[in-house]
Amino acid sequence: MTHDLLTTLHPLLTAEASAEAHATGTEPGDLEQAVWLRLLEHLATDGPPPDPHGWLRRAVRAEVRRARRTTRREQPYDSDPADDTEHGPEQLALTAARHRALREAVHRLPGRCSRLLQALLSPRDLTYREIAGELGISQGSLGPERSRCLGCLRRLLTPEVAAREVRG
Description:
mainly alpha; 7 helices; elongated
C-alpha cells in the first residue's frame, strides 16, 4: 500500500516541487526530499492521509513557507569579520588558523558527514554528481544531507567560536 501511494504521488510531488522551489531559492530535489520525509513521518504516526493529493500539496506549501522563513532570518554580514583581501603576515596566519580549525572540526563530524564535507571543501571543486558517486549515495539526497551536516558542524564550532570572544 505504501509503495503504491509513493508511486502515485511521485509525479505530483515532482511537479509541485519544481513549480514552488525556485521562488524560495531552494532546489526542487531538496524540497522533494523534505516532503517525502514529512510523508513517511505521517505514515508512521497517522497512517495514510485520507486525501493524499491534497495532503501533498499542503505539505509542499508548508515546506516552502518554512524555507522562506529560514531565508528571511539568514542575513549576510555587512562585512566579513575575517576578510581575506589583505594578505599581510597576520592575515595569512589567521586565515591558515581558520582553515585548520575548520578541517579539524570536519574530521570530528560523525558518520558520513565528515566525508561529505571534505568532498564539498575539496580543491577539485567536485559537482554534486561526482560527490554522490564518490560517497555512493543518490544525488537527490546530497542537499538534505549537506544541510544536516552543516548544522552539525555549526553546533560543533559554536563553543569554539564563543570561547574566543572577549568578555568584559
